[in-house]
Amino acid sequence: MDFVSGIIALYLICFAALHSLLASLRAKTVARGLMGSKVDPWYPIFFSVVAVITIFPLIAMLILFPGRVLYVIPSP
Length: 76
What we know:
Oligomer: single chain
Helix content: over 70%
Radius of gyration: 17 Å
């Protein structure tokens, strides 16, 4: 595995960990404890915005450093 592939894999792991952490009931409970019940309608929006913002660098890395072709689907 080359350096760029390692960075992309590490970023993907970090993205998945953050996504899972924010989706957990514990994170929602902490947010509710800090900001009260007013956070309930806004938490899904916050979750989605964070997911979109953090996926963009991964998409950019995959576009800029595509790596080698693993498989090509033949036309019918």
